[in-house]
Amino acid sequence: QVQLVESGGGLVQAGGSLRLSCAASGRTFRLYVMGWFRQAPGKEREFVATIRWSGGNTYYADSVKGRFTISRDNVKNTVYLQMNSLKPEDTAVYYCAGKEGVIGVYDYWGQGTQVTVSS
Question: What is the mean pLDDT of residues 35-64?
Answer without folding.
Answer: 95
